[in-house]
Amino acid sequence: MEKINVGVIGAGSIGKIHLQAYTSIPDVRVSAVVDIIEDRARQAAESFGIPKYYTDYREMLEKEKLDAVSVCVPNYLHSPMTVDALNAGVNVICEKPMAINAKEAQKMVDAARANNKILMVALCWRFSDEAKTIKEFINQGYLGNIYYAKVGILRLSGIPGMGGWFTNKDKSGGGPLIDLAPHFLDLAMWFMNHPRPVSVKGYTYAKFGPLNKRKGNWGIPEPGGKFDVEDLGCAIIGLENGATIFVEMSWASNIERDTTYCTLFGDKGGAEMMPTKIFTEMAGKYVEIVPRIEKVNSYLEELKHFVQCIKDGTSPIPKGEEGVIDMQIIDAIYESARTGKEVRL
Ligand SMILES: NC(=O)c1ccc[n+]([C@@H]2O[C@H](COP(=O)([O-])OP(=O)(O)OC[C@H]3O[C@@H](n4cnc5c(N)ncnc54)[C@H](O)[C@@H]3O)[C@@H](O)[C@H]2O)c1
Question: Which of 40, 162, 256, 345 is the most exposed place for a label (fewest CB within 10 A)?
């Protein structure tokens, strides 16, 4: 097969990671890059040796013969740009969160179906050796029935792009819950084989952002800009099989150090992901199994998978439909936090 022609929309932090990864996949030719800021588009084109750059993604879709695009722009643009690309007959990998809410995410799935094109949500953690190893232990029955999962990404000082799109609810959809939960909520749901969510009770807090404190490294700050999102959110999610997921995500908190965890409680075994360990009983003893984990570039593995799906005409992992369910949960967390009531799904 000929090379897959790719365009990257958005030449910010993650756009450059996509560009870097694509340039190391032999079956890919990056034909063009887009950024609304011309300098950024031009610089990205120069640094990665890309023949064309644009400031309008629609112009790129019209002029280039693309097989695929990466959507790497602020959250509120994910759904409209993805739908436009799919309608133009182009396969899409869209960065997380899939959209700013489930309704927008559903439009993306509908457009993929209507145009018979691939829609993949960029959830790079699925491609980490840590997650793949735990999934294999689960598939081989070592954990038994997983009835409880706890996931969290807690930062001491990590508010991205203070005052820019990240902290503006209209553009981001929310704070750390929508920014960080898609990664680990997705993992918990995947490890548990996607039981249907039935209830959500959520809470949100904004203690540091409104004081212009605890800025992080991601994103581009805009001094004097808005902060109208949470800086910590947590929730308890009930699933139809009786299992529960606890999720906590923060950009800023008074804790000892940044903490990222995914803990699974199964009736035959348990698991921790960071670092990866399996806990069970053997020969009358409680034991800890420590698998040897390979360091992989999960962004690269994710994009290789996307390219392979295009070449083979197969469905990607993770699927758009799974992304919609994650977005329904996130919508319900925000609604519950706003109303103070449990949301039934
Ligand atoms: N998978 C991950 O680990 C990961 C990590 C970081 C960010 N992300 C996601 O990637 C997306 C982008 O985040 P980022 O950190 O790169 O943000 P960023 O602000 O660094 O980059 C966004 C880029 O999009 C450009 N842009 C804005 N509007 C545009 C338009 N209409 N047309 C073309 N370009 C436009 C901006 O000029 C900017 O260069 C977000 O949805 C974020 O959640 C994912």
Answer: 256
